[in-house]
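User: I'm preparing a small set of examples for a lab meeting where we compare how different chains pack in three dimensions. I only have the primary sequence for this one, and I'd like the structure in token form so I can line it up with the others. Please keep the answer compact; I'll paste it straight into my notes.
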Amino acid sequence: MEMSLKEHNDRKGRSYKMLLWFGMISMFMMFAGLTSAYVVSTSRPDWLNDFVLPPAFMVSTVVIIASSFTFHLAKMAIKKGDRNNTTVFLLATLALGIGFVVSQFYGFAEVIANGYYFTGAESTVTTSFLYIVTIVHMAHLFAGLIVLLVVIYNHFKQKYTPTQTLGIELGAMFWHFLDVLWVYLFLFFYFY
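Assistant: Understood. Below is the structure token output for the 192-residue chain.
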């Protein structure tokens, strides 16, 4: 019995999504390990108990949440065959993603301006943890930006249609995962 093209594409899509889920779970486990190490380290005598996250990190959190909405709207627009709005929402997602990175660097600058250093003799284990976790997340976000650029490129090459949305769906899944991961990290550092 021969498999139809639709069945083949459906199976391929499920396989790709499952692989992406495995990758995202692995990434989350890495961050769970880092935050667990952070919790264990709070009992150290050199731990900073008065450290407060700068407002730029709150701004970056709002920006990354907004980018999830624009990516979702892009996915919904392409499913309706609305290429113009898909373009607008994808480019808005890219701008917000870049805005997130910029606000992260502003946050680091605020931390340093407050006299907390990430490395060197003036550094503390508290700020070094913040630095490591945020930099590792930003590395994943750069991967997300590359994925987003590929999605935008494929959109301009008209590879997505209302019936063929696998690439944009995979890109959106990864982007939403990065957003949820940052919100988790932000809330963890803010409240713990």
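A couple of notes for your slides: The two ends are 58 Å apart (CA to CA). The longest helix spans residues 5-41.

User: Perfect, thanks.
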